[in-house]
Amino acid sequence: MVVKLVWSPQAEDDVISIYVEIGLHQPLAAERYYEQFKQKVSLLADQPQLGQRHPEIAASARMLVEAPYVILYETIPDADQGPVDIIQIVRVVDGRRDLRNFLKS
Q1: What is d(CA 77, CA 70) in angstroms, rounded to the nearest whole number?
Q2: What domains are there in the chain, each with its CATH number?
């Protein structure tokens, strides 16, 4: 079964903003982060439940870390086992910020 990977518009904007911000002073570092984000997310196609759950952020929130950033995502259906149809990348944000109540449940 093929898992559909979907980036929310906000997550796409997050990655672009991170790329531009870092790229202004360190273009090679911006490229590395961009590639690392893509690589991390691609792991989810085979392992959708790879990221740990973070119910303090949102009931269905899962997180992958690409320090200092975190990739917040959800699976559909929201299950700890069994097949997943869709992986929704919700946000890519600085993990040093307070993420509680960051996403709406």
Answers
A1: 22
A2: 4-94 (3.30.2310.20)
